[in-house]
Request: fold
Amino acid sequence: MLDDTQALATLIDVEDATSWCEEEFSDVELGDKRLNRRLIRTAIKLTMQPTAPINQACEDWATTKASDRLFDNDKVVLDKILEPRQQQTQERMKASPLVLAVQDTSYLNYTSHTQTEGLGPIGTEEQNLSGLLMHPTLILTPAGLPLGVLTQEIWARAEDASELTQTEKKNRPIEEKESCKWLKGLEKTVELTPEGVEVPAKNNEPKREAIVVSSQ
Reply:
C-alpha cells in the first residue's frame, strides 16, 4: 500500500496532468466530441507515464482498447492533435519578446513491431532498422524554459532511398531532399510566430547559420 506521502504525490501528479491536458487540448476539434474527450483522457494517462507504452500507461484493458480505437480513427490525425498545442504555444510566446526555435530529428525505432505497416528504413543499412522520423520545432525562452512544440513532421523513408547514389541524392530538387525538413520547419515557424516576437531559429544541423526571424 502507498503511505500518505506517496498517495499525496500520486494525487498531485494526477491533478497536474489533468489540469495541463485539459488546458492544452481545450480547443481540440476532431469532428466528434467523444473523440475530443477520449484524446484528453488518453493524453492524461500518457502525461502521467510519458515513457510507458500505451497499455502500461492506460493501466487496464478497457482504457487501452479505447485508446487504440482513438488512434485507429481516421479523424484523429497529427495536424488536428497538434493544432491546439500550437495555439497554446503561440499564447505563451507572446509573453516573451525573444524566444528560441530549436529543430532536431529523432528516429523512432519500431523494428520489433513486425506487423506494423507504413514504416521505413532508419539508421544504416548494416543496422537493418525500421521506423519513423520525427522532426519538431521546440520553442524555448532564452533561459531555457520550454514553451511548447510549434511545428512537427513525422514521416517514413522510402524503402528504396538507400539505393540512390550520392550523386543522385545531391542532384535531387531541394523539395525532394530530406534536409528540406529544416526549411519547412523554419517557414512554418515564421508563419506561426506571433506579432512582435523575435526568433533566432536554431537547429542541430552542422554548419548551418542561425536565422533571425522577427514578426512585425
Confidence is low (pLDDT under 50) at residues 1-12, 206-216. The domain at 4-72 is CATH 1.10.246.40 (Serum Albumin; Chain A, Domain 1). Residues 21 and 40 are 6 Å apart (CA to CA). The first strand starts at residue 100 and ends at 103.
